[in-house]
Amino acid sequence: MMSAYLGLSGEELLAQLTWIAAEGRMKSAAEYVKSRLPEVLKQHLQDYERDKENSVMSYQTILEQQILSIDREMLEKLTVSYDEAGTTCLIALLSDKELTVANVGDSRGVLCDKDGNAIPLSHDHKPYQLKERKRIKRAGGFISFNGSWRVQGILAMSRSLGDYPLKNLNVVIPDPDILTFDLDKLQPEFMILASDGLWDAFSNEEAVRFIKERLDEPHFGAKSIVLQSFYRGCPDNITVMVVKFRNSSKAEEQ
Question: Which one of 53, 137, 231, 243 is most buried, counting C-beta atoms within 10 A?
Answer without folding.
Answer: 243
